[in-house]
Amino acid sequence: MQGQTQEDHQFREEVRDWLAANVPRDRRPAEAEAMRAYDMAWQRRQWDGGWAGIGWPAEMGGRPLSLTQRFIWYEEYGRIGAPRPGAGFIGLTHAGPTLIAKGTDEQRDHHLKPILRGEHVWCQGFSEPGAGSDLAGLSTKGEIDGDHIVVNGSKIWTSYAHVADYQELLVRTGGGEKRHDGISWVICDMRSPGIEVRPIRTMSGEMHFNQVFYDNMRIPLKNVVGGLNNGWKVAMATLGFERGTGFVIAQIELEREVEQLIALAREGTDRRGRRLIENEAVRAGLATMRAEVRALHAMSNAMMAETARDGVPGAEGSIIRLFSAELNQRIYRFAQELMGPGLVAPDAEAEHWGLGYLNSFRHTIAGGTSQIQRNLIGERVLGLPRG
Amino acid sequence: MFDKFITEDAREIVDTVARALQEALPLDRLSRPDGGLAAETGFWPELLALEWPGVDLPAAIGGSEAGAWTETGIFREFGRHLLSPGVLAVTLAASVAQEGGLPDLARDILKGQVSPALAVPLANGWAGVIGTGDLLLLAGEGGLSLHRTRPEELATAWAFDDTLGAARIRLDPATALTSLPPSAQSRLRLLRLVAAMQNGIAEATLTLSRDHAATRQQFGKPIGAFQAVKHLCADMAVRTAAAGALLGEAALDGADISDCAAAAMTASTAARDNASATIQIFGGMGFTAECPAQLYLKRATLLELVVGGKEGLQDEMLAA
């Protein structure tokens, strides 16, 4: 990476040593409560080691590293294969940063440290059955009743809602002329009466997806973040964080996956007994993917260095996001084909790739579909007119 | 992304080159009957006098040692302005002559006293030549070699790009003036400079497409307002960004063969796919000889073959 100093190299060593000694080696459990406990224990360990809240201000309990050092942390985190934040994800990358940016002192005091210590699980309440890519079309109602908001409606695709303590919830509290007006960002206590969580099984068989229903659920007005009817702006501030350094982990994982596939192709043989690596189609796929994961890494390096220099990430973030999502799909699709008939009754290896393949469909949908990303690139990067 | 890290000095030189090319060799030259290679080679004495081809070559052979970033940036401009692969042959032939222990020849090349052309090996001892010249730089799987040739030895062939011309010749490996293995520094340079020219092509076609999509009206609005077209442009931007990021890595000190191969491979795909998309976005105009999109496509295709084609690059990527 450009512009790394001696200090950065020492920092990398420090990160590497700490991770090597502390990353959990046992398998993440599939059962909900055990999974939550696993994710929270890993978060707690990072807190105890002084590694929680990378990039958060020190007074909020975080570790305010330089952008380069944040990048190094995530690189090493991905390289060693440390568990993803899992149930801690929304708290660490959405809700926490939003409260830092827009919350009151009371809201921050109550919520930030428990997120970092692995005590509170947060979930997101943005998408609705009728508002997916068109988030501003959300219709979950929040009626003001004295010093409370009374919520009725439903949210969907809510990961970890079944084990969450809090939710970052977008509700329509006002009329407003434009659809973006009249939305509020509120802290929802998931133990409030009137909430029902129904699990949704994903195509990969996972069960941490949910639909959440609200029936006259009451939220105190003091839980509004960033002002009543100002939630769209607050939400957009949150979405920006996700495009920061966090995705570096996913990238490093992809690099490791490609190297793993190359190793597999060198060992494995096809149905004619030929080494897979000697098959031209396999070579073409592996060589291209190896070059592309490098390109992804190089693009992120460049964006990080640019952000470090100019202070703000450019609109090019949507380019990296689209490239990354589609590359992920190409890689797992390729892996699935490489497994051949092994997929019918998989060993551990084939199970990994088969599951990865099924899960890869998520990436071009979640957090803005690839079609929406292409619109953003066309309109915000290239300046083409809106349709 | 390449642009974000180029040094101020290098950027200044590259900008000067871009302005000079814009003036001396504007794209519309290529739609005039006399505007092809003739117009370009007419500019070469000046180009050599400005020391652009030797910008990163040793001073001992007449280069100016301005560094890989400057050279990479200049060749990206060469690609963007549709300079022929002959200009690549000049730099590479000088580089190979110097690395192969023929400094006098390298000097003559940079002075313009010899006209190098690029050639790739065909079957049965034949080689395919892009354009024409009296010194051939043969770029193949076995490495790089230089061969003297006389015009009468070149058998004219149908040219994939008729603004360049093409020929076949029998080449005896034993007659090579010098030969370098695939691991030679000059081969890294070839990969990096092809990547640079392909980046220029990818960027130029993205700009052409974007501008056309923003202005060409059908059904009462710019065609770029339709997602079918907008998304083609977005994909072009993604490919261009990926190629640009790898070009930056290839220009760093210590870049190795796989860095340069990754850059050449990704940029070649970006250049070809972007040029193809541009032809599509320009519709009927895109299919005409007048539209530069087809020239970008042809140049990108030939440049990819000069670095070993898809399979050659794949071998480099999987070598380690």
TrEMBL record, chain A:
Record-annotated Acyl-CoA dehydrogenase/oxidase C-terminal domain positions: 229-382
Protein keywords: FAD, Flavoprotein, Oxidoreductase
Annotated Acyl-CoA dehydrogenase/oxidase N-terminal domain residues: 5-119
Coiled coil feature spans: none
Cofactor: FAD
Annotated Gene3D superfamilies: Acyl-CoA dehydrogenase/oxidase, N-terminal domain, Butyryl-CoA Dehydrogenase, subunit A, domain 2, Butyryl-CoA Dehydrogenase, subunit A, domain 3
Domain Acyl-CoA oxidase/dehydrogenase middle, chain residue ranges per copy: 123-207
Cellular component terms per the entry's GO annotation: plasma membrane
GO molecular function: flavin adenine dinucleotide binding; oxidoreductase activity, acting on the CH-CH group of donors
Pfam families, alphabetized: Acyl-CoA_dh_1, Acyl-CoA_dh_M, Acyl-CoA_dh_N
InterPro entries reported for this sequence: Acyl-CoA_Oxase/DH_mid-dom, Acyl-CoA_Oxase/DH_mid-dom_sf, AcylCo_DH-like_C, AcylCo_DH/oxidase_C, AcylCoA_DH/ox_N, AcylCoA_DH/ox_N_sf, AcylCoA_DH/oxidase_NM_dom_sf, Mycobact_Acyl-CoA_DH
Family: Belongs to the acyl-CoA dehydrogenase family.
PANTHER family registered for this protein in UniProt: ACYL-COA DEHYDROGENASE, ACYL-COA DEHYDROGENASE FADE34
Protein name: Acyl-CoA dehydrogenase
UniProtKB/TrEMBL annotation, chain B:
Keywords, in A-Z order: FAD, Flavoprotein, Oxidoreductase
GO terms for MF: acyl-CoA dehydrogenase activity; flavin adenine dinucleotide binding
Acyl-CoA dehydrogenase/oxidase C-terminal domain ranges (all copies): 184-311
Coiled coil: none
SUPFAM superfamilies for this protein: Acyl-CoA dehydrogenase C-terminal domain-like, Acyl-CoA dehydrogenase NM domain-like
Cofactor entry: FAD
Any Pfam family matching the protein: Acyl-CoA_dh_1
Superkingdom of the organism of origin: Bacteria
Similarity section: Belongs to the acyl-CoA dehydrogenase family.
PANTHER family named among the record's database cross-references: ACYL-COA DEHYDROGENASE, ACYL-COA DEHYDROGENASE FADE28
Protein name, entry field: Acyl-CoA dehydrogenase
Organism of origin: Frigidibacter albus
